[in-house]
Amino acid sequence: MKTKEEIEQLAFLEYPRLINDPYNPMEDDNAYERQIWIDAYTRCQEDNKDRKYTEEDLRNAIDETINACNVAQKESYGELEIDADKIINSLNKQD
Q: Beta-carbon neighbour count of residue 25 at 10 Å?
């Protein structure tokens, strides 16, 4: 799960500070949207905090997908090769 600070950093990437009034530089026109984004991201994390998969679960899912694709498309495209380690290493593993 991401920390509050990490979520806020992501929110600023999506909704950077936007100052449209040069006479009021403290008013950020994206502040409202950014806060909604933060609230939604936080709620999603809370809703999904108990849904964790093991590395073995992921490897099995990848293998089953590869096998199904190979059965269905072998004659047309040849053997499908996917680097499962690369997929697993790309996942966000913050706890």
A: 9
Same domain (yes/no): 36, 16? yes
Residue 88: closest CA among 52, 58, 66, 65? 58
Is 83 contained in some domain?
A: yes
Full-model pTM: 0.51
Q: Are 55 and 77 in contact (CB under 8 A)?
A: no
pLDDT tens digits, one per residue of 11-26: 989 888 887 777 777 7
SS3 state of residue 39: helix
Asked if 10 and 33 sit in the same domain, the reply is yes
Expressed as residue numbers, the domain containing 33 is: 4-48
Sign of CA dihedral 34, 40, 43, 47: negative
